[in-house]
Amino acid sequence: MRSGRGLWLAAVGAAIGLTTALSLVQVSTAQPPPTGTDVSTCDNPVLNKGTTGWGSLRGSAATREAVGHRSARFAYAQRGNAVANPSFHLPQQQVRAGERWTFAYDASATSAGRARVEVDWYSTPEGDNSGYLRQDVAPWTSFAANAGWTRVAGEFTAPAGAVRANVLTEHEHTAAGATLRATACDYRVGASSPTTTSTTTTTSTTTTTTAPGDQAEAAVRHGWGAPLPISDEFGYTGPVDPAKWSTPSGSVGGTAGCWEGHAGNGRRCAKNSVVGGGVLTITGEANGDTGWLRQKLDRRHGRWEVRSRSRNTGASGGLYHPLHLIWPTSEQWPEDGEYDWVEYTDPDAGCLSAFLHYPHPDGVPVQQEYRERCPVDMRQWHNFAFEWTPAALVGYVDGVEWFRVSGGGGPHGRRDVQAMPSGHLNLQLDNFTGDGGLRPAVFEVDWVRVYA
């Protein structure tokens, strides 16, 4: 079935304008109870800020509604569909040939019926239908009327040449008039299809299978090669490796190895970054003392991947801000930009965010791109990666791309966002509060890997 494919592009164009125009529609019909699935990987899975990536293909226009759900406050909705078989699209996903994907979402409806996931595969990352390869469909999933949330899912293998999946869904009801809702989309990539090598001799044939690497690492999934020597697995105990990291070197407050903190708040101290048990731990104390590290590699363009997590260890007080960032070598901000590719305002945060600052003249309003992905439990281990090329800035979480920005130069004398002359990786647990009254926290890093 290919009926959804031609409608997809028109729907996407309409959805771009629709996102800003939609107002929150209060639910007036029966709603399912707050059950459902915990989610993490689909772009815009719980529609917190709009319907970006979601849109109607057949049936009523898209709207966004408040719902009761285990992990989502909002859902995509098509109300009172005039057709018995409505259809919509979910966010697109970049893929690689041979990858095994699960595409899923939670559905509910006011009329009993069934639904299934369909995927259109493309050989082009975006654009028209010229790169269309084929469509695959999953089995139907049945659900009752007003019966809570039902998981609709399908497993697919990306065909040869595929780089993009357009994820669609078909709903079928016994009669027109059903209102359907969907949220909590979750895309999970598994191992690629195994690579099999056969060697034939005069006496036997031997078949070996090459096990895939960890697809939750961007470097493995996208083939970045071996890490550079500046990388750090933290397989030692004590202070950080001085050949790889710089730490504060002042004596603010009478303590060796302490500088003033962010914007003069508290102190950044070498004593607050310690390695043990295979993990770097940056500790933020109640008195405002916290850790800061600068990697000893300045470069223009590159790839970094960091496995980290954080958590509050105190019950009250001002919150620390964990960051992975690329800071300009020149120390000139905002003239040479800043790439906060992981930054969040609570060590126990449930969302991931990024602030990507344009290089622009001082004295004009701060110019930046902001991206957010929800939910992501920052208390759990995740792999965060950043790719900086002449073409774009790209962020990944657990191997999956979650932002891509480029260009934007011109207004107020700013340059393209990716035009920082040179920079280096910093790991920071920032104090935005003052010299005391903070909630103690830790920022843990399992490894830092840098790629050419």
TrEMBL record:
Domain GH16: 221-452
Region (Disordered) location: 190-211
Low complexity biased stretches: 195-210
InterPro entries in the cross-refs: Beta-glucanase-like, ConA-like_dom_sf, Glycosyl_Hydrlase_16
Keyword Ribosomal protein: no
Signal peptide stretch: 1-30
Record keywords: Hydrolase, Signal
Coiled-coil ranges from the UniProt annotation: none
GO function terms (MF aspect): hydrolase activity
Superkingdom, taxonomy of origin: Bacteria
Annotated TM spans: none
Sequence similarity: Belongs to the glycosyl hydrolase 16 family.
Protein name: Glycoside hydrolase family 16 protein
Organism of origin: Saccharothrix xinjiangensis
